[in-house]
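Suppose you are handed only these lines of text.
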Amino acid sequence: TSGIISRPQDEPLGHFSRIGGDEFTLILPNFADKKYIATVAEKIISIFNEPFQVAGREIFMSTSIGIALYPDNGDTVETLLKNADTAMYRAKEVGKNTFEYYSSAMNSKAKVRIKLENDMRRAIDNQEFLLYYQPQYDIDTGQLVGMESLIRWKNEKMELVSPGEFIPLAEETGMIVPIGDWVIQSACRQGTIWKDQGYGNLHLGVNLSPRQFFDPHVVEKVQSALDSTGFDPHFLEIEITETAMVQDNDKTVQILNALKGMGVNISLDDFGTGYSSLSHLKMAHIDTLKIDQTFILNANLEGRDGAIISSIIDMGRRLKIKVIAEGVETEESLAYLKNKNCHVAQGYLFSPPLPVDEFQKLLEERESV
Ligand code: C2E
Ligand code: MG
Ligand code: MG
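From them, the structure of the protein bound to magnesium ion can be written out as follows.
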């Protein structure tokens, strides 16, 4: 078959190099069949399955490998690297810790990616991003107590693109940083507008992806958003996921301390889906836990789901951490959460995320109740 490179067996097994960031290349000049490459890839992945000890800490890493074959997938170094890169992204997409061979079908996917990336770059300048707001209710009193800002992208075709479709790519390319800067500014500005209209005491959730959280200027940026908009930091809830917490412990604590020092609240989003290390809660910087919607949606409340939910609520209560349940779609879940003394609920049962003018109506109606 093609793709075989025949070389004398006494040449080195492969050539290894770092091409930048967290990406490495391995050139394998000597192999007889594709199965051999798979063996090497599996071996590498299995080595990374074990945690590393770095400065006394355990670090877990995932590995994604893309494979391009000479001459089938290119006959220049550039093409082979580019195609291996495309295959690697595919490996990441299908769940990491795996390897993928390049195929030309991927190339068209890669083109879609590149287009999305370019579109996103333009979208910032064209002001195509907007924020929706989803209300949050105190379960005990039924009062509106806050809202989460959720980004939407109204692209050139006026289609509404949901964050699930572009946030991961924005995160990967770093584009999330300028987008996120805009989000914090806009959310705080809107929050101040509503406060000035007399709708005070509403908490405002703003999502921060890991890359934004570790942006060296994140603290200044939050401060500048607060300063320029006059939003009260005590009502700002920065939502981070556990993925951000596990990346670099010292750095994480440092950033959390700085944010807390400014009076900002920290909310642990998607709780229960990530690493869920209880040591994160021990760090005592967390003000709010958001139980991930996967626990609430279609939950078997009499079974394991219910046990998990009520344990999280219980733990939150004991640690004096506010617990917000996401994905509350049914009266049944709400009744369950109420029974378990959960603090706050957010979900379609109350309202989907709303554009500014509709959220405004909701605020006005609340006034007239
Ligand atoms: P998240 O922060 O966990 O936000 C909650 C998601 O659950 C939202 O999806 C919301 O529309 C959806 N949701 C709310 N209630 C229900 C319900 O009852 N049932 C169901 N099935 N879903 C419900 P959305 O707006 O598509 O956002 C998805 C994710 O994208 C967010 O998850 C967040 O991780 C990310 N995201 C959204 N906006 C931003 C942003 O401004 N910056 C960053 N970095 N990430 C964002
Ligand atoms: Mg969130
Ligand atoms: Mg969430």
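What can we learn from it? Confidence is low (pLDDT under 50) at residues 1-7. The chain is about 45% helix and 20% strand.
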